Amino acid sequence: MAPVKASPPSRVDLLRLIRVGSCVVTCAFLVLAGCKKYEIVDEAKAEGKTPADFSADDYDYFRDMDMRPDGTVDAAGNSVLKPLELKENENTDAIKGRNTWVLWCAGDEVFWDYLAGHSYGFLDLLKLCDFAPDDKLGGKRWGPAGLTIEPGTKAPDKPDEFGLYIRQPEDKTLRQPDPKLYGRSSGIVGLRLFPNPKFDDKARQRWDASKYRNDEKYYNDPNLVRPYRVGMSCVFCHVAPHPLNPPADPEAPKWANLSTTIGAQYFRMRAVFGNLLKEDNFIYHLLDSQPPGTIDTSLIATDQINNTSTMNALWDFGARLDRSGILAHRSPDYAKDYAARYGHNDFENVSGESATLPVLLYDLPNAYANPRPVPRILLEGADSIGVWGALARVYLNIGMFSERWITLHNLFIGFRKQQPFKISDVEKNSVYWQVNKRNVGYLAKFFVKSTGPMRLKDAPGGKALGNLKGEGVPWDPQLAAGRKVFAERCIICHSSKQPNGMNGAPKGPEKINPNELVEYLKDPSYRNWALAEVEKPDFWENNFLSTDLRVPVTLIKTNAARSLGSNAIPGHMWEDYSSDTYKNLPAIGEITCWNPYAQRNFEWQPPDNGRGYYRPPPLIGIWATAPLLHNNTCGLFNNDPSVKGRLEAFNDGIYRLLTPGKTDDEAEANRYLWASGASTDLGSPLNHATIDRLKQDHGLIWRTPVETHMHIPAPYIQQFVAGVCPDWIRWLVNYPWISFAVLLLIGILIFLASRWRALGYIVLVLAVLLGLFAAFIRGWFGDLNVAPTPAGTPVDLLANLDPERATKPANLAALAFGMKNLRKPGTDAERKQVEKLLGMSASPDLVLDRGHYFAKDLSKQELDDLVDLLKTF
């Protein structure tokens, strides 16, 4: 029999096949996508709840927190402390504010439960709340993680019904907050526990507490349903031992030993938000590179920059309002006198959408002004539409209305364009946002009462331990020499009281080109004003000790990363929460960066749209808040909240910060050659940096101490690939088996048409390849380890890659095939690869502890006089 010769398919046959295949594909995706697109709402709205279901509690649960001096001293000469008096007549709004700050999670327990199964195996907050006998942290949370154990709780002798050891109240007769509103205590201040509505009978049967503690495959399963959801309140990042009343044992404080506004100064990012990571994972070291007491608030909605900054201490809320131009909280006489003597920052223009939010409170005059007075929040001053908007946005950034938030960006990994989280969206679809419209006012009233200075003279033994001069206040006659140095060197950035240009007074720094601020100190009119003003005792009262102005990083020369954050620029996540004034700030010009591989400086031009600026930090309480600089990299970290411990850290940090030198380069060298003591748990000094390494790196460059890779557990590979792949093929990643089945069906149909077998073979091979791809992203071949990196690699060399640059074909090739060159130390190949990586960077400024050399030419006596003054703030 003669062989049958295959002929090419006819056009009619091909069209028929295309119709069949299209029908199959369309039907498959209609089944998946459904016929109706539902609007995303938060859990409370989906359950039919209203703001009336979430009324703030006015019982003063935390009366002993936030102690303040009562103006008297005890027999030992120490200041007597008293609780804040938050109740005014019958008005309990400030009490509601503190309860909101400490307890209210705004529904973010939905988000943190979601992250437990979608964080690529990084974190699980519930594990931190389990104080089992075999707890890997030894039952401690302060020492290893910087978290605050809730006073009045104890670890139980027996587990609860789910096998977990959640701390319990020691006195069960004490009134507890409503668990339906605020959750129940987790044993850690700032974390609250809620029942998990998904923990049904099936989940209960699968739950195994022992495996949850010890079996990595079990607790890394994205489908694992935990019995509790963990909510986070704002105080989680702001509570710490009270500088004026520190605990005898930080692992067992009393409420009176805690401040809700000092900032979580001892918080460890990796121990908290990377508590599941192992040391060979690059992300372990990325989080570790954020020193104690700092956090990258753009970690989750990432801007692709490792830009950590201090957990804000909230100081003198009233003086911040004064500086912005808001005086409604003051008496008429105070407001009149202040306006006559001092100026304020220029008002900021905001968008129409941003202007729908009040400046501060609903019931104040000009509540919706535009331009408007803005006390700026965040170190770079991006949160800039008013106090109300800043306080409300914080809840969005820790997970409120996460149902919508997680759809707007690629969690943690990025490499996908963000979408803005619109005010109109949350206003319409989030009940929790509606609740916060009321709660923000409570918070503001609490902060006005709770954020006054904490002076060293009022701490136990503070006068003696700090060798304070006179009465320990800035206006003491014995501190005149220090005040003179302050007036001549510091006041231009570190005073909220500035001249207003009226009645012969000089103009204030807000009217000066920010690049000329240091030179303006020499202006005779301004200098004379400053020297006279610092001698007035009332100058030092109600003074925020910061101008709140945006100063270009080219002037202060500190690490630029935090100033370059992009989440608030047009088209990005928080565009509605930054002012048009911020978005239109001019580009700052080139900054000088250090290439440690080539051992040379290079110039780099940051982008505009608000980036490249810092607000001067307030100097209030500086004696209690070292290490210094915006990223806590300057000075000793000793993990000691006692008065003695705080002063040891301050003395080390302040003299490092203010090292002398004839030039900036000489001052820089003197800083990194400073002999700090051992920094607790972090090596000596930070990141085990030796003097030789600090010389080579021109300061602290955080490097991986071991060989690392990017580790993605098998169950998360599909999520990882879907997150970073282009939009046009994401459906293929999300539904690989359907795509495989469709191709397989088409291949079989073609193959059965005997004339088309060659084409059928091709389609079947493609189907098999797609099947293998589906098996890979479903984790059938095991965990994914990519980007092996040798020990000693600067973390920010890889952490700051700019997706727009990195995804260009030539750069993708360098990332795919050139990383091996980092294993060739001292070679041209290594140096060229580093040059390419720096060229792809969103922030190539690797040195963390440089800058602020304004005191470099002070004499030793002048420096000592200034430090004596700073200790009294």
Helix content: 25-40%
Low-confidence parts, pLDDT < 50 over ≥5 residues? 1-6
| Separate helix tally | 37
Spatial strand sequence of the major β-sheet: 5-6-7
Q: Using DSSP, what is the number of strands?
A: 17
Strand content: 5-15%
End-to-end CA span: 104 Å
- Overall radius of gyration: 29 Å
Residue-averaged pLDDT:
93
| Coarse structural class | mainly alpha
Shape: globular
Largest sheet: 3 strands, antiparallel
What labels would you give this structure?
37 helices; three-stranded antiparallel sheet; 873 residues; two-stranded antiparallel sheet; mainly alpha
Structure description:
Strand 13 (591-595) and strand 14 form a beta hairpin. Mean pLDDT is 93; it is low at 1-6. The strands form eight sheets. This protein has a three-stranded antiparallel β-sheet with strand order 5-6-7. Strands 1-2 form a two-stranded antiparallel ribbon. Strands 3-4 form a two-stranded antiparallel ribbon. 36% of the residues lie in helices and 7% in strands. The chain is mainly α and 873 residues long. The chain is globular and about 100 Å long. Helix 3 packs across helix 18 and helix 31 packs antiparallel against helix 32. Among the domains are: 458-549 and 616-701 and 849-870, no CATH class; 712-839, no CATH class.
